[in-house]
């Protein structure tokens, strides 16, 4: 049985319930989930809107990151989805979840998954600030 249950780069709203359901497993004693949302400010400046773009290789890179986490921890279920396109304040941008036999393993695996996704998967954020300035952020979430 493949422990990587759900991966995706989507242009539609993300569901915490879908991700949590995907990783459910009777062998798991702990499930850790991280939900990244669009916040109203960054660098102390008000954000008015943002969008995410993904390189065509993003799904393959997401799988590579997920496989690395699954190989490094006793994972019983893993899921990661990231949104692309235009998002509003409060929208969910990314969800990762990892189930493991024990809570500490689940926390560590989930943290590794989101950190590696952010650092290695080619998804870029373009945010526009209230003063009219904007910036591209070289990684996701």
**Which class in CATH terms?**
Alpha Beta
Principal-axes geometry comes out as elongated
Class by SSE composition: alpha+beta
What is the fourth-level CATH superfamily? Molybdopterin biosynthesis MoaE subunit
Walk me through what this model shows.
The structure is a single chain. This protein is elongated. It has one domain (4-137): Aldehyde Oxidoreductase, domain 3 (Alpha-Beta Complex). The chain contains 3 helices and 9 strands; from the N terminus they run βαβββαβββαββ. With 141 residues, it is of the alpha+beta class.
Care to give the gist of this entry?
The protein is of the alpha+beta class and 141 residues long.
Helix-strand blueprint:
Blueprint: E1 4-10, H1 16-23, E2 30-37, E3 41-42, E4 45-54, H2 58-72, E5 77-83, E6 85-87, E7 92-100, H3 103-120, E8 123-129, E9 134-137
Parallel strand pairs: 1-5
Antiparallel strand pairs: 2-7, 3-4, 4-6, 4-8, 5-7, 8-9
Pfam families: MoaE (PF02391)
Protein name: Molybdenum cofactor biosynthesis protein MoaE
Based on the model shown, name its key terms.
141 residues, alpha+beta, Aldehyde Oxidoreductase, domain 3, 29% helix
């Amino acid at each position: 049985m493949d422990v990587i249950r759900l991966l995706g780069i989507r242009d539609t709203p993300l569901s915490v319930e879908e991700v949590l359901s995907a990783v459910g497993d009777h062998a798991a004693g702990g499930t850790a989930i991280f939900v990244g949302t669009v916040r109203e400010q960054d660098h102390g400046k008000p954000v008015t809107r943002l969008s995410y773009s993904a390189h065509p290789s993003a799904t393959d890179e997401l799988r590579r990151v997920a496989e690395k986490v699954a190989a490094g921890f006793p994972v019983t279920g893993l899921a990661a989805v990231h949104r692309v396109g235009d998002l509003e304040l409060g929208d969910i941008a990314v969800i990762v979840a990892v189930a493991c036999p024990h809570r500490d393993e689940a926390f560590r695996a989930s943290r590794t998954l989101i950190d590696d996704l952010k650092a290695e998967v080619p998804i870029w954020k373009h945010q526009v600030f209230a003063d009219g300035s904007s910036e591209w952020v070289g990684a996701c979430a």
